[in-house]
Amino acid sequence: MTDGEQRRYERALALHRGGQLGDAAALYREVLASDSTHFGALHLLGVIEAQRGRYNEAVVLIEQAIRVDPDVAAAHANLGNAECALGFFEKALVSYQRALALQPGHRWALMGQGKASWSLGRLTDALASYEAALDIDPDCSESLMARGDILLKLGRLAQGVVSLRRAMACGADPEPIRFVLASVGEEAAPRMAPPVYVKNLFDGYADRFDQELVEDLQYRTPELLAQLVLRQSPPSPLDVLDLGCGTGLCGPLLRPVARRLTGVDLSANMLEKARGRGVYSDLECIELTDYLATRHAEFDLVIAADVLVYLGHLEQVFVGVQRALRPGGRFAFSVEAAERQDCELAATRRYRHSRPYLDRLAADYGFQVDAIERNILRRNAGSDVNGHVVLLRLAVGR
Fold first, then answer.
1. Among 284, 279, 277, 313, which residue's Cα sits nearest to residue 298?
2. How far apart are CA 342 and CA 353, in angstroms?
3. What is the pLDDT of residues 271-321, one digit of tens each?
């Protein structure tokens, strides 16, 4: 490498460390234009692509770097991270194991191994990996959070609670942890799931969402809601708002009756999947009640499939939907069914709502009940998840 190329590489490193990913990537590419086998430029350009969410490109680049030098533990660990993000958990485990063979105390490889094992349902293996990472850094809030969550899933409640509370003491964001603790009765349930919790959950789930939800969990809610809406013979074309649109499973079902189809979601990664369907007129990355607060009589139909399970008290949603709908407009949504209280936070970390609560909300906010039907929405842990699919109509005089 010439002196000029070395300076260019060092400048790229400095920009990368400073978070200037675009400028750093451009310089790494300049280095590779001169030397296509430069390990550092290949590896770190792959890291940047992963940081940008371009995991397929990251895998290609980091694999090229490993072919140049297979003895760098960090490269195998970063390859595992990209594979894990793509849902290739078995491949990721192999990459993490290679990293650990080269550097047994590689904490990030141990944490990655824990995440991949967890995603494959191997909770005991995942717990062992995170505990090994905590042997290296006992104050790592990320490992403490993961350890606590796994312990809860293994039924070791007291130990899980201790680990989660220690994660907060070590600097983890307390809001999502308190939400998890509330789901097992160790904190008061908040009015809604923290937006950061929901965003992180679905950002990490986007690449495998459709397959796992539709095929593995037999998710039926979009079809049930679309059938309910279309059965009422709506006038068309409609201006439709899909709240919490996710990967856009409702979009193709509603596009035939939509003049304009707008999707809103907190997860940018889920919205990218929705954009790929090519059926939405507009897609916005924003929390749904914040979006509704800015809309006034713009829509004929608002739909929320499997979204209100992350919002406990629904009054703010109803206020926003009432404002966003035109007179006579309709609100179609699903909720999981509560049996004892108006609103319950379950151990699944999803809220359930009762039929009497829905009836009161409709009456309080000027909606006529067109239909509330009890149905099986999906499967979870081998059991049916019962819920309500609801169609309300906003009174013309509102």
1. 284
2. 6
3. 998 999 999 999 999 999 999 999 999 999 999 999 999 999 999 999 999
Among 194, 334, 205, 201, CA closest to 272: 205
Q: How many CB atoms lie within 10 A of CB 276?
A: 10
pTM here is 0.84
**Angle between helices 174-183 and 141-153 in degrees, nearest 10:** 10
DSSP string of 244-261? T-TTTSSHHHHGGGEEEE
Q: Phi, psi at residue 330, to the nearest 5°?
A: -120, 150
Domains 3-189 and 204-394 share a fold: no
Q: What is the widest separation between alpha-carbon atoms in the chain? A: 77
Contact of 76 with 103, CB cutoff 8 Å? no
CATH architecture of 3-189: Alpha Horseshoe (1.25)
SS3 85: helix
Other Cβ atoms less than 10 A from the Cβ of 231: the count is 11
Q: Are 202 and 269 in contact (CB under 8 A)?
A: yes
Q: What single letter denotes the amino acid at residue 370?
A: D
Q: Which amino acid is at 227?
A: Q
Tell the CATH superfamily of the 204-394 domain.
Vaccinia Virus protein VP39 (3.40.50.150)
Tell which residue, 46, 35, 43, 40, has the closest CA to residue 11. Answer: 40
Identify residue 105 by its one-letter amino acid code. Answer: G
Q: Which two tokens stand for residue 97?
A: 């194991």
Q: What is the pLDDT of residues 207-260, one digit of tens each?
A: 665 566 655 556 788 999 999 998 876 677 999 999 999 989 999 999 999 999
